[in-house]
Design goal:
The chain is of the alpha/beta class and 359 residues long. The chain has two domains: 202 residues, 3-Layer(aba) Sandwich (Isopropylmalate Dehydrogenase); 127 residues, Isopropylmalate Dehydrogenase (3-Layer(aba) Sandwich). The chain contains twelve helices and twelve strands. A ten-stranded mixed β-sheet has the order 2-1-3-12-11-4-5-10-8-9, with helices on both faces. α11 crosses α12. The longest helix is centred in the first third of the chain and has 18 residues. It binds nicotinamide-adenine-dinucleotide (NAD). Nicotinamide-adenine-dinucleotide binds next to loops.
């Protein structure tokens, strides 16, 4: 029996998580996986109920589970509250408490969705990549200071990694590549940055442990260019926190559909936090208009990475693909000029379940 903690959060979070849970139960049933669910609060709803965006009790529940499925946090109601009560503080806290050091963001262009990209169809068709970003070190966590010297204001941040931080994310990326196209591209700036040279050395040292994976290295600036010129050459990419922040957003936008982007944050021992990339979309919350596919695809990642059930993940992805191929769309993924009647959040969940029933 595997325990899953649900943290639906705010805005459209509860709506998309509800559909994702239906899909998770059905996929588990198909593949004979026993699941038990717990639920708690995070974000603004937790602030309202308890005065804090994440309670110790919720953290303890999470630590006792195999995985956490999160909806989204935030909304205008909590924009003006003090920092320690901001919904996002709950998000940062749970990532820290669970020791999640790797962020995995796939960018997949479904054949029936190529027109959604800002890039030409022939450039994006067939894109299927995974960006693995280091999440707890580097520039965002190094020593930083703003000060004045000789009447001049100065400021610095430091990017620092040790070899253990690099090898644990490196191994995770090699494993991920092994389960995909067996091509791993390490993205760096070793021609300028000392710390990138250590990344390059450690990645090369790990490579013999994964003889079935082809490791390449790419400068981050040329990676950014290739992403818009020839994105389909990439399979799995791994990089430091700063580079990953920027490159994962660039890769995601190639797909052109925020409502369909899943993510996973993983730590030691397999526990993971799975959530859509999008926010709480207060403009459409409570109207049954949200696209639940990003959260449903996050459930596929949950099966793959925290429940060791890649076959359940594949079943979900195939079902989503068939729903899109059949032409069903929530409002956010209908393109200008397309004459399609949008389906709602619940109806999109129904459509995915219908496809799962065909298994
Ligand atoms: P957003 O992602 O919530 O919304 C951006 C736009 O995309 C909106 O027009 C929204 O309607 C649309 N959209 C987003 N997800 C959708 C979906 N699943 N289906 C259909 N349409 C969708 O970003 P925002 O408007 O900048 O932020 C709103 C709130 O969410 C803020 O409080 C912000 O802090 C928070 N936020 C939370 C997270 C998170 O929980 N991880 C991430 C980003 C933003």
């Amino acid at each position: 029996m595997k325990k899953i903690l649900l943290l639906p959060g705010d805005g459209i979070g509860p709506e998309v998580v509800a559909q994702a849970v239906r899909v998770m139960k059905k996929a588990a049933e198909i593949h004979g996986i026993e699941l038990a669910f717990e639920e708690d609060l995070i974000g603004g709803c937790s602030v309202d109920a308890t005065g804090t965006p994440l309670t110790d009790a919720a953290v303890e529940k999470a630590k006792g589970c195999a995985a956490v499925l999160l909806g989204a946090v935030g909304g205008p109601k909590w924009d003006a509250v003090p920092r320690e009560q901001r919904p996002e503080t709950g998000l940062l806290a749970i990532r820290k408490e669970l020791g999640l050091f790797a962020n995995l963001r796939p960018a997949t262009v479904y054949p029936s969705m190529v027109e959604a990209s800002a890039l030409r169809p022939e450039i994006v068709s067939g894109v299927d990549m995974l960006v693995v970003r280091e999440l707890t070190g580097g520039l965002y966590f190094g020593a930083a200071k703003t000060y004045e010297e000789d009447g001049i204001r100065k400021s610095y941040n430091t990017m620092s990694y040790d070899e253990n931080e690099i090898s644990r994310i490196g191994r995770m990326a090699f494993e991920a590549a092994r389960g995909r196209g067996k091509e791993l591209c390490h993205v760096h700036k070793a021609n300028v940055l000392e710390v990138s040279q250590l990344w390059l050395d450690v990645m090369n040292e790990l490579a013999p442990e994964y003889p079935d994976v082809n490791l390449t290295h790419q400068l981050v600036d040329s990676c950014a260019m290739i992403l818009v010129k020839e994105p389909k050459i990439f399979d799995t990419l791994v990089m430091s926190n700063l580079f990953g922040d920027i490159i994962s957003d660039e890769a995601a936008m190639i797909t052109g559909s925020l409502g369909m982007l899943p993510s996973a944050s993983l730590g030691e021992g397999g526990i993971g936090l799975f959530e859509p990339v999008h926010g709480s979309a207060p403009d459409i919350a409570g109207q049954d208009k949200a696209n639940p596919l990003a959260t449903i695809l996050s459930v596929a990642m949950l099966f793959e990475h925290s429940l060791n059930a890649p076959e359940a993940a594949a079943t979900i992805r195939e079902a989503v693909s068939r729903v899109l191929d059949a032409g069903h769309r929530t409002g956010d993924i209908i393109l200008p000029g397309q004459d399609i009647t949008p389906v709602g959040c619940t109806a999109m969940g129904d459509l995915v379940l219908e496809q799962l029933d065909k298994n």
